[in-house]
Design brief:
Layout: E1 3-6, E2 9-21, E3 24-34, E4 37-46, E5 56-66, H1 68-75, E6 77-81, E7 84-93, H2 97-103, E8 105-119, E9 137-147, E10 150-160, E11 163-165, E12 169-172, E13 178-181
Antiparallel strand pairs: 1-2, 2-3, 3-4, 4-5, 5-7, 6-8, 7-8, 8-9, 9-10, 10-11, 10-12, 12-13
Length: 191
């Protein structure tokens, strides 16, 4: 397909290989362009056991060279710098965006080199403040948990020169998604 619209984002040049089974489908591969980069997934779709059940989707894969400026715009942030790479696994169930968001659970690993993240000019009187630890960084690696209609950063290290910090953030899965930051914390020094 030329394009596949998924809520607030679009997959481009979608190519997939599916194996249809009695209980659903096996996604042997799904390749697409997203945010100026690419995504590669494998997974399955399990059909509902009864009329009251919902289909279950399970995917795992990786993404490469995502354009952080495009991703930042979706998240309401001014983000520039090197591309974003990572991998993850997610399981969702349902038919509607609300069902999919509320049932989503999984994990992500993210890596980004040299970058600058700032708040977007906002019409509201209180734009979301971006922590100083990610206002300019040399490297950011993070693991995130997907649950309760949100993506929450877990273990993460933001490196700027010799300084290492972490940032606490949550992305609410919605259309459009919303980012909230908590007070950043500095990892304990090793003795």
């Amino acid at each position: 397909a030329d394009a596949l619209v998924l809520g607030p984002t679009t997959l481009h040049a979608v190519s997939a290989s599916l194996r249809i089974l009695p209980a659903g489908a096996q996604v042997e591969r799904l390749d697409a362009g997203i945010f100026g980069g690419s995504i590669h997934l494998t997974g399955s779709v399990d059909k509902p056991a009864t009329d009251r059940d919902k289909p279950v989707y399970t995917f795992e894969g990786d993404f490469k060279k995502l354009n952080v400026t495009q991703l930042g715009a979706l998240l309401g942030l001014r983000w520039s710098g090197a591309s974003l790479n990572g991998n993850g696994k997610i399981t969702l169930a349902g038919y509607t965006a609300k069902d999919l968001a509320s049932s989503a659970h999984g994990a992500l690993h993210l890596e980004c080199g040299h970058g600058i993240i700032g708040s977007q000019p906002s019409e509201s009187s209180k734009p979301e403040r971006v922590p100083a630890s990610i206002s300019r960084f040399d490297r950011w690696t993070a693991d995130a948990t997907i649950a309760d209609a949100a993506i929450a950063l877990d273990q993460n290290v933001v490196t700027a020169g010799l300084r290492k910090q972490s940032v606490a953030a949550t992305v609410t899965i919605a259309d459009p998604p919303a980012v909230s930051f908590a007070q950043s914390k500095q990892p304990a020094a090793k003795h």
